[in-house]
């Protein structure tokens, strides 16, 4: 990584100096960064690179070395945009831009082996609820059990039972009916219940008699008309 310092005042304004190694700052001709000014000491300060960081060290200069307007006595770590001053000469510290490889290394996801692979522990309360909250088992009905068992094979049936050609069993005894308990009259149990007479209301009976009477009168009238017609036919004939 290469740091830079840029002059922000005096004759060297906007001039940049690259710091890619430990460098000596001063007015002497052997200095790595030559500052030919009377207020700058011959061996004024040193810029040191440690673990990719930039440090400044004052070499007991006469007019001092400053970081952000504070005179330093010991080695001081510099940051981006700090104001570095040697006597009356001021410089702005420029941190080097990170390379693509450094950015990828900083943002890289750690391998799977480094990630904690312990399974997520569920709370004991959640485990207890999941174990106890089971659906009740419904007992199967007799019909469902018979369907699961199916019809027994002929080989599994009683071998003493012989089958005819049509598949009907032979020599199978018919069970006797259960005995009738004493004191039970079978005939009385088989008797038909007596019919109940339904009473017809008086108004309905009167209407029925009137209807029958009218029918009789109409029948007699019809017979009389037929007789009169026959007599008239005989007379006029």
TrEMBL record:
Transmembrane segments: 217-236
The keyword Transcription regulation is annotated on this UniProt entry: no
Key words of the record: Membrane, Transmembrane, Transmembrane helix
Every FHA domain range: 23-72
Highest taxon in the source lineage: Bacteria
Protein name per its UniProtKB record: FHA domain-containing protein
Organism: Acinetobacter shaoyimingii
